[in-house]
Amino acid sequence: MFSVTVRDHMMIAHSLRGDVFGPAQRLHGATYIVDVTFRRGTLDADNVVVDIGRAAQELHAVLAELTYRNLDEEPALADVVTTTEALAQVIADRLAQRVGSGALGTSAHDLDGIAVTLRESHIAWATYERAL
User: Fold this and answer.
1) What is the pLDDT of residues 16-46, one digit of tens each?
2) What is the rounded end-to-end Cα distance, in angstroms, of the chain?
3) Using an 8 Å Cβ cutoff, are 130 and 114 in contact?
């Protein structure tokens, strides 16, 4: 399996509903380093997994929809407890839609999977991986 990873970051505010989250139930901020890994079993006709420039551009576009926002106020996330794990899935699903629409090029339709890792700090991160 081949893979290519691109990186960006986002800064958000949110609160986490439920007693299990203790003080994180209050509004707080988080800055995430976001790594997205694209996977495929064989390289495309140009001998690449995915166009790195397009991948970075589309990741940035997805994160622009979330960064510098209070996620508690985002209608699309109204029913989501925006944990790091859940945000990784949101980003992966939004990128998968962009792959499907051709935004990463036609050869990206042959990608096998995508993994999104959100790093909260140097000691804590979460990953969501899905098939494409």
Assistant:
1) 999 999 999 999 999 999 999 999 999 999 9
2) 14
3) yes
